[in-house]
Amino acid sequence: MSDDLSVLVVDDDFFVAGLHADIVNSTPGFAALAPARDGRTALRQITASEPDLLLVDTYLPDGSGIDLLKTTEIDAFVLSAATDPRNVRTAFRRGAFAYLIKPFPAEELEGRLKAYARYRRVFESGRALDQAAIDRAQTMIRPADKAKPARSATEDAVVDAIDSIGPDASVLEIAKAVGVSRATAARYLAGLARSGAVTLRLQYGATGRPEHRYSLGAD
């Protein structure tokens, strides 16, 4: 008998359900059951197969996938294109472990599944849990945040220069403050702008090309 965690995908879109089932099957330790296209079929499969986890869409032909969570004690993720706060809050209130907005990268669902597997392992010993184990289980259910790559010393110097100069600093001002060439400053500024560490604004003069101006971003 397989030790894989069984997952039931509930989605009325045959193609999307297949994609999500493929992600489940490609994640070590998981196996997808035949997808269900409506709530009624899902309930029959839950009774027959007793899956470990549900991946439920919000909109089903015979009702709301979130309402399905009220009728079962099976752990569940909600996978939906619905983004209104009421839907999301209701999903969490009814016990959803995750709410992923469709479409999402395969890696996102895979990461959530692996986090769920770690969560399940906390309870496999059958022994009474202490507070540390309970707290650990709560943190495990979410995948680890993707760490932002560390900035280089020159990147830090560029950010510090903008902080000292103030908003709308020019490339030349930043280059002088850091002690690098204008071209070097422009190269680092382009990378920092892509990461969101700084924001770029084009300042248009009376003639000639617009000048790049930089301010600190939200990072």
From TrEMBL:
Keywords: Activator, Cytoplasm, DNA-binding, Phosphoprotein, Transcription, Transcription regulation, Two-component regulatory system. GO terms for cellular component: cytoplasm. Transmembrane segments: none annotated. InterPro entries: 2C-system_Tx_regulators, CheY-like_superfamily, Sig_transdc_resp-reg_cit/mal, Sig_transdc_resp-reg_receiver, Tscrpt_reg_IclR_N, WH-like_DNA-bd_sf, WH_DNA-bd_sf. The modification 4-aspartylphosphate is found at D57. Its main location: cytoplasm. Signal peptide: none annotated. GO terms for molecular function: DNA binding; DNA-binding transcription factor activity; phosphorelay response regulator activity. Residues 6-117 form the Response regulatory domain. It is found in: Cytoplasm. Pfam families: HTH_IclR, Response_reg. This is Transcriptional regulatory protein. It comes from Spelaeicoccus albus.
